[in-house]
Amino acid sequence: MTDFYLLDEKLTAQEREIRDRLRAFCDREVAPIINGYWERAEFPHELVPKIAELGIAGGTVEGYGCPGMSATAAGLVSMEWARCDGSIGTFFGVHSNLAMQSIAMLGSEEQRQRWLPEMAALDAIGAFALTEPDHGSDAVRLETSARRDGDSWVLRGTKRWIGNASIADVVIVWARDEDGHVGGYLVEKETPGFHALVMKGKTALRAVWQADVELHDVRVPAESRLPGCRNFRDVAEVLTRTRYTVAWRALGLALGAYEAALAYAREREQFGRPIASYQLVQDKLSRMLAEITAMQLLCLRLSELAQDGRLTAGMASMAKMNHAAKAREIVGHARDILGGNGILLANHVARHHADMEAIFTFEGTDSIQSLIVGREITGIPAIAG
C-alpha cells in the first residue's frame, strides 16, 4: 500500500492512465533486464524504440508531436521511471525534460520544427551540456566559449557528466560568447571537433552513460544558437521548470525501495514467522510510508503550481532538497530491512540504494538547494551568481 491518503482521487483519468501505462511497461520491459545492464554498465539500447511507442517524450510540451500532458502527469512519469530504475529515468529526464524543454522554451520556431517531432518519436536523442569539470554548483561561471566567425559560431571548452552525450543526435552546449553572455548552441551528431567519452567507474546510475565532452573549435551555423537564451537566467529558468520533476524522481526511488522492502518483509521468515510481524520492522515501514505520503502531497502541490505558472526557483529547490534527503533515508531503511540480501541486485533495493546517491547530488546538491531557498526567504544571496 503506497496510496495511504487516497491521493489517486486527486488525479485525472488521463493522469492515472499515463502513470499506469508506464508502470506496466516498466514492470514488463525494464525490471526483468535492468540489473544485468546496470551491473555491466551498459545502456539498454533495445528499450529506446519501445519507449518511443509510449508517446510520452516531451512531457508538457504542446504540439510538434509532443503529448502536452499536465505538469502532474509529467511528474508521475518521472516518478514511475525512478520507481523502476534510476538510470532509465535519467536517460529520459535528460532527453525529454532538459533537452526538449530547452528547445521548446528558448528555441526558434524553425528549431522547434526541426528537432521536437523527431525527439518526441525518439528518432533523435537529446543531451544537455552545462556542467564542466571545474564548474558544477557554480555553473553560472562556465568557461566554455563561443566565438562568432562570419556565419558560424566556434565553440571551445570541456563539459563533464553530460548524460546521453555519447549517443545523442543533438547536444545543447551552453557557452559564453565574447560579450560574456551565456547562450545555448545546438550541436549535431558527428560535428567535427565534438568528442564525447563515456565516463567509467561510476557506482550509481550505471546503466545510463554520462560523458566527458571536449569541444575543439566546433563550428555550428549561426542559426544553431537558441534565440530565447540571452543570459544565464534563461538557463536557470529551464532548470527551475524541470527541477520539480527531480523531486518526483526522488519520490519514485523511495516508492520502489519501500515496495520491495514491504514485499520482502511479508515473505522473509526468521525465528518462525515473517519479519513483517516484528515491531522494529513495522516501525520502519510505518515511518517510511509517512515520509512517502508527505512527499506525494508536496509533489502534487508543486505540480499544480508549475501548471499555473507560479512555480519559483525556491519552491522547486525546497522540494528537491527535502525529497532527496527523505528518499535517501527511506532507501537506507529498505536496505536494512533486507539484511544481507539487501546488497544483491536481484532484490532491486541495492540498485536503488546506489542510484539514490547520484540523485541526491545532481541538478543541484543539497547545500545549493538550501541556499536557493534561503535566498528566496531572505532576499539576500549567500552565494555568488
What's the main sheet like? 7 strands, mixed
Average pLDDT score: 95
- Helix percent reads 40-55%
CATH homologous superfamily annotation of the largest domain: Butyryl-CoA Dehydrogenase, subunit A, domain 3
Oligomer state of the chains in this structure: single chain
> Roughly how many Å apart are the termini?
44 Å
CATH architecture designation of the largest domain = Up-down Bundle
Principal-axes shape call: globular
**Helix vs. strand class:** alpha+beta
Number of strands: 11
**What is the radius of gyration computed over CA atoms, rounded to a whole number of angstroms?**
21 Å
Describe this structure in words.
By secondary structure, this protein is of the alpha+beta class. It has three domains: about 5-120, Acyl-CoA dehydrogenase/oxidase, N-terminal domain (Butyryl-Coa Dehydrogenase, subunit A, domain 1, Orthogonal Bundle); about 125-225, Butyryl-CoA Dehydrogenase, subunit A, domain 2 (Beta Barrel); about 230-380, Butyryl-CoA Dehydrogenase, subunit A, domain 3. It has ten helices and eleven strands. The protein has helices at about 15-40, 50, 70-85, 85-105, 110-120, 230-265, 280-305, 315-335, 350-360, 365-380; strands at about 60-65, 65, 125-130, 145-150, 150-165, 170-175, 180-190, 195-200, 210-220, 270, 275. The strands form three sheets. Strands 3, 4, 5, 6, 7, 8 and 9 form a seven-stranded mixed β-sheet that branches. The chain has a two-stranded antiparallel ribbon with strand order 1-2. Strands 10-11 form a two-stranded antiparallel ribbon. α3 runs antiparallel to α4, α4 runs antiparallel to α6 (about 230-265) and α8 runs antiparallel to α10 (about 365-380). The longest helix is centred in the middle third of the chain and has 36 residues, at about 230-265. It is globular and about 80 Å long. The chain starts with 12 loop residues before the first helix and ends in a 7-residue tail after the last helix. The mean pLDDT is about 95.
